[in-house]
Design a protein that fits this description.
- By secondary structure, this protein is α/β, with parallel strands linked by helices.
- Helices cover 30% and strands 20% of the residues.
- Helix 4 packs parallel to helix 5.
- The longest helix is centred in the N-terminal third of the chain and has 15 residues.
- The chain is flat.
- About 5% of the residues have low confidence.
Amino acid sequence: MSIKRLPPEILGLILFEAVREESGKPSTAASYRLLGVCFQWKSLVETTSGFWTNVYIVFKANRNTTLSIFPTPTPDQYLEHLDLQLQRAESQLIDVYLSIDVDAERAGHLFGLIFHRAPFCRWRSLEVLDANWNDYTLPIARHNDGFVNLEYMKVHYRCKPELLRLIDHTVTSKLRVFRGYLEFEKIQEHCPNILSGISEMELGMSSNRPFSPPPNVVDLTLPYLQLNDLCHVEHLTLTHQQSVMHFVNFDWTNLVSLNFAVSEAHAFPPTQHISFPRLERLFIHGTFYIVLAYFSAPRLTDLQVDRAFYPTKLAINRLEEALSCSFFTLSPSEVIEILFPLNKMTLNTLVRAFSETKRLILHFEDEYRGWETIRGVFCDWRIGGEIAMKGGVEAGSPDPTMFMKKLVSLDLQLKWMYEEGMRENWRARVAKVLQDTQGTKLKEIRCTWKGEPPLELDRSELMKDVPKG
């Protein structure tokens, strides 16, 4: 069927997916480009309000600094284009990016247009880069409905405190996510009402002293662990490297997920074991993996390990050291993902250390080394035999202890360029793995190349294709 004959509702869905950004919002610039393709697309995009809900209000007194998708961004022309976009958005909730640096008169023209076409009660999300005009009472004085549908708010360090206070004094009953590149003390001073209602908070700047997050915040992202307590926090992300010694001083009773990096400048283990009684998901960056041996997490389901910017060889050695530690007890029940390529020896150690995991995700950057590692652990039973002999098992025979005894799924993320014929080669290789692991619970293997549909093999369906001999 020709694309011209597609029903408008189907074509609209296709075009909307084409302009959708990673955030899920439609790209306004891409929507404008679609207008120039043909009359049919122009008519469809212009009359579909969903294409116009991502609104960039970037209004500068100096038009040379105006960031805009329009060819002649004078203030008057910008207001005309903004008016047109807001008309096309109709009554939809909108996502607003705000950057204003004008005098009070021009700010009056801008907010007069906003109040008429898109009042604050239709704002679903708000990101403020900067907001600088003389009369900060102007927006709220003429509009009292408040941000009743605002769900997400993000402010940068150039945002004026006057604007924060004005927003804080309006209705923000639906606001649950707040992200700010400000110190907590300033947010606490200017946004007490906002802080009392949100459940997720991200701070991009360090505070001058330790603080206690509001008890309603259960999802917290910070640069460093500068807290008095976090007994009510369930999800914690630490964006900068830090000393694991700080972990010893906290009560982790309610923590469900932890994402952190350990500083190499503080690369020494804690003085005692750290208990995470409810922890289910753990993501560690860096290479100081020995700290994992000091973690106790009986409910752990998912573990992700990344090397950050450190060399792969160093990361492999550090992971081998941690997994070989005699008091290493972590054992995720569902998923393990290693975000850097392992060698044969370390993968061998890993599959024996994590015996309870059901799914293993591995990343490889080189085809030859990747296959040699997989084959050496899952296919080459001579290695298995050498280890098995220590336990009295006949050399060369399949040894169940070589595998995670509950492993069901193996996911291979292949980072090299996909070439013709590669799918057939890896299909044969994966079939060999399935053949050589008979007697284990491994049922499916998935190979994924960037930009290509994945190769999925299931033992029950594909054993007939396994090469003999």
